[in-house]
Every structure is written in C-alpha cells, then in structure tokens.
C-alpha cells in the first residue's frame, strides 16, 4: 500500500510546542484515517513529517483536525473523550485533582466503556489524572479540618506537562485554545505551516515565546502572544505520555524531575512511528538515561534529544524554556 508524506514546516523538532503539536496530530487522526498515521522528523532542528496511506494536503489535514473542535468549548472542551475535562471541581482549584476514591470510580467506568465500545476514554483519563501520586490537598473553604487522628483526604495529581498558576487549569486553557480555533479556523492551518501569534492569547505555558516581551511587539508593551492552533494540538499530545508513580512521588514519560522545576525531554527519530511506538521510544531506558551510547541510540533511530526546562514565576509555573540539544 502506498505511503504519502506531508511535511509540516511549522512543527520543528527543537520546539517543545512543535513537538507536542505533532504528537497531538497523531492522537486526533488515529480514528479518522483508514490506517493509523505515523510520524518522523527530517532531522535535528527540522520539521515533522506525517506519513499516511491516503494523500493529504495541509488544508485537508487542517480541516480533518478542525472536525474535532468542540461545539461548546466552555461546556465540553474535549469532545473526543467527553466527561474528563468537564468534571466538576471536588475541592482543589483543578478538577483533575480529585479524591482517590473518586478517581478510581471514574477509571473503572472509563475502562469498562473502552473495553465494550472501543472508546479511548480510559487512556485519556490516565494521561491526565495520576492515581499513583496522591497527597492531601489544601483546606477547602467551608470544610472543617479532619479530626485529630483522622487521615486527611488524599487527592490525585495531574500531568506536569501543563504549568499551573493562579486560576489557570488545564480545562480552562483547553477551552480557550478551542475557542480561538473555532472563531478562526485558519489557526489550525497556520499551526502546520507558519505560526501566527495572537495578542492577548496566553497559550498554556508550553512556549517561551508566548510571554511577549515588550521589545517583541510593535506597540512596545508586554503582552501574551500565544499560538492557538499549535497549543490546541499540543494539548492533545499529552495522551502520548504515561503518568506513573509509587503512591507519593509522581513520574511522567519524558518529564525530568532532576532539575529544580522539571523539564520536558524528548527524542526525535528517523523511522516513521505510530503513537504506540512513540510512547515505547519515549520510555526506552537509553532515551531516559543521560550520556547513553550514541551507537545504541542510532540503532533506535534516534537522531537527537532535546530538553526544555520549566521556568518559574513568583507564584506560578512559567513557560517551558527554549530547548537545549543534549544529544548529540
């Protein structure tokens, strides 16, 4: 069966936002194409290549991706797997931090639906809600502290790929990205071909350039300048990463906790890979171990590895920094 290649010039391998957006494309198109799409890279600091069994143009791909935009982002920002990002808050500021018993109940429900109806809800739930890293939450307003000797309620954690601060939650960032793309569908085409920054759009702390320093804009005032289309795609890329832990300390595929604020680390590769193969590569010990044998990485098809540390604001997580190539 013939295979068609589509270069995505705006999604370059040394950009954390570009890398995540490329993964998001695979997640969104998995159930739309006759055969699962695959992804590769032209090389270090070079664009992503989408491999499909049917020919696609940038325009037709943008339209295919746009078919997954929610009709009512504020009500259900993730219609691909409804009922996760639209969960009500149960105490903490982020609904994805929930009592562990509640999380396990949801997981059993989603697992049964995935088994019986082949929906990816359980897969997505475990990529956004970590039941293997639990801790007491802050005191909920209006709720008394637990009695002496009684254990406090234990709450799940969520993915560290999203940087939180203030009233920011993953759900409201997803909603805002979807609203921007719904109001102007050309954002999705621009995400693939040439990014177009939007004044006042903050993004989701995945792109250092979205901070919009004063010298970067014509009016000379600092303003947020995010890329809605690429951000919306990148958020869907979170489903590629697994959340694990030992009950207290969380672990996430490709998230390096040895740096003060954490860092996203990722390889790029030459052979075209599906989402399942990409997750396996991201978790490979050679990719996750510093100073691995270059010859063995080459045998895996890895051509470069990058890291983008998380910045820190006074009372919040900051955006991912510009990437550093750590191999070769």
UniProtKB/TrEMBL annotation:
It comes from Streptomyces spectabilis. Residues 140-161 are annotated as: Disordered. This is Uncharacterized protein.
